[in-house]
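W.,

You were right to be curious about this one. When I first looked at the sequence I had no strong expectations either way, so I just let the prediction run and decided to look at it fresh. Below is the sequence, 217 residues in total, followed by the output.
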Amino acid sequence: MRTYNLKQRVYLFLAGTLIPALIYCFGLTWRVKYVNADSENAGPPLVWAFWHARLLPLIYYYRHRGIVVLVSLSFDGEITARVLHRMGFRTIRGSTTRGAMQSLREIVSELKKDSYVAFTPDGPKGPPEVAQIGASAAARLGNAPLVAVATASSKNWRLKTWDKFIIPKPFAQIEIRQSEPIIPGRRSVEEISEDLQTVLDEVTSLAEESVTKGVSQ
């Protein structure tokens, strides 16, 4: 287990306490529209995939369901893991660069136990909104449908992070849009990943258009 110095431990404690509180406060004010939410009926097992920058509304609206989320082994990943645990998620630690094979085995094991698993296929370091193969490999090996999920908000802040992380402002209109399930079948992981990229781009564009249209009306 990784050890942290005093400053890091204080930071982790504050982040793990304050960030969930802020998510709850903001989430209570958001006005959310769901599109194709019935695609969840494709599982379990089910793999959700969404862009890293757009995950905040999903943390609030899918809280306390025991969903398994892949989180990196970095210090930032430790912050994320502590927030997710407070919000009722379970985590598996690893990424495409560290602990990849072990985390993939754990995820496939969860899928075989009929779990819901969530991925940010462009995490933990990008490039932003470019799908890596992790989510597709998990779906293929776990024989689970893969659903692309997009979020869009009418007003937000964007952080100066690698992915320009999005924080919807209080009282924002938010759309959560899910794709129809992508069935891995016998296709290669690369083919599934290409399909996921196309579908994620599509549902993200549709969510953004819908929110923009709703604000202008």
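Here's what jumped out at me. The longest strand covers residues 146-153. And, maybe more interesting for your project: Residues 69 and 198 are 22 Å apart (CA to CA).

Coffee later to discuss?

I.
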